[in-house]
Amino acid sequence: MRQKQIAAPPGFREAIIAFSVAGFNFAISAAAVSEIRGLEGLQSFAPGGEYDCPDSVRYTMHRNGARYFVVDAARQFHLPPSGAKPQPSRVMILRLAATAVLVDSTDRMAEISVLHALPQAFSGEERKWYRGLAMFGDDVVPVVNHLSFLSGSNLAALRSAALQLRGVAAV
Amino acid sequence: MIAEPGSFVLFPLGEKRFALPAEIVTELARPGRLQSFPHRTPLMLGVLARRGRIVPVFDIARILVGPDAPSGRFYLIANRQFETCRESTAIPVTGECALASCVPDFPGSELPEYVTGVLSVGTETIEVVDIERLIALEDPA
């Protein structure tokens, strides 16, 4: 059996948003993103080690009365700090989760008709990070799994930490 | 162990040559554009886009000849068998490859566990490499 393409119905089309982090290009399903914003409104979030929060979350933001935990995509993908490269300038707020993602830039929207399965040879964390690979001409771009940024237990830990921090701040 | 003659693809990595069983090798490809994205798989260099397919590239030279291995000029494309599918893998090699029909020797346990035999070609001794075992050394998962 040969390398698989993820089964898609005839005429399959998916809108994706291309974005970049630390010099790497990625894509995310447009249906998973509710809004793309600048960095205004980011609030520093430092819960300390006792909450078992993912260390990729350094900020929160509020939108329409809801709090979002902002995942630094560079930390999520274990990429070195940007340094001289482009610094994060955009936040993608995800739909149906209290999660937002800090990225260097969002580049364009596009449509894909095929999502290639991540080759089995990839055996690390990337199997959770990516839904598959998209090809634009000869360019290969990983399509991120938006559910992998923060799990349910991550969000529970973050919410607990945020509540505690708010309580401390109020005392 | 008495061995049958077999076909092997001999490939160079710097000064040394190694061999793969010919039945798993599909082609020798010209240098392509290696593309990378974040991942955590040991030895993985990135992927090549080839005829609409995505082929992962493994740097096995790092294990076979060490960290100072010269960079590859071509890609040897071989098949790997996974639980649910067979998949192409590209291996950077440093020069032209050759096909040889030889009877492998099995000199015993002093060779690394990823070497499944040795071939004698002229005065040269060439190790036959099991890619699966070699990659498993770095990536036990």
Task: Give an account of the 3D structure.
The complex is a heterodimer of chains A (171) and B (141). Chain A has helices at residues 73-76, 126-129, 152-170; strands at 14-21, 24-29, 33-37, 43-44, 57-63, 66-72, 90-94, 99-103, 105-112, 130-136, 139-144. Chain A is α+β, with helices and mostly antiparallel strands and 171 residues long. Chain A is globular and about 55 Å long. Chain B has 141 residues and is mainly beta. In chain B, the strands form three sheets. A five-stranded mixed beta sheet of chain B has the order 8-1-2-10-9. Chain B has a three-stranded antiparallel beta sheet with strand order 3-6-7, with no helix packed on it. Chain B has a two-stranded antiparallel sheet with strand order 4-5. Chain B is globular and about 40 Å long. The interface between A and B is medium-sized, with 27 and 28 residues.
* Inertia-based shape of chain B: globular
The helix content of chain A is 10-25%
Average pLDDT level of chain B: 90
Biggest sheet of chain A, in brief?
Answer: 6 strands, mixed
Bin the strand percentage of chain A: 35-45%
Shape of chain A: globular
Number of helices in the DSSP assignment of chain B? 2
* Overall mean confidence score, pLDDT of chain A: 89
The number of distinct β-strands of chain B equals 10
What portion of the residues of chain B fall into strands of 2 or more residues?
Answer: over 45%
H/I helix tally of chain A: 3
Across the major sheet of chain B, the strand order is 8-1-2-10-9
Number of strands of chain A: 11
Key terms:
heterodimer; A: 171 residues; alpha+beta; 6-stranded mixed sheet; 3 helices; 11 strands; 39% strand; B: 141 residues; mainly beta; 5-stranded mixed sheet; 3-stranded antiparallel sheet
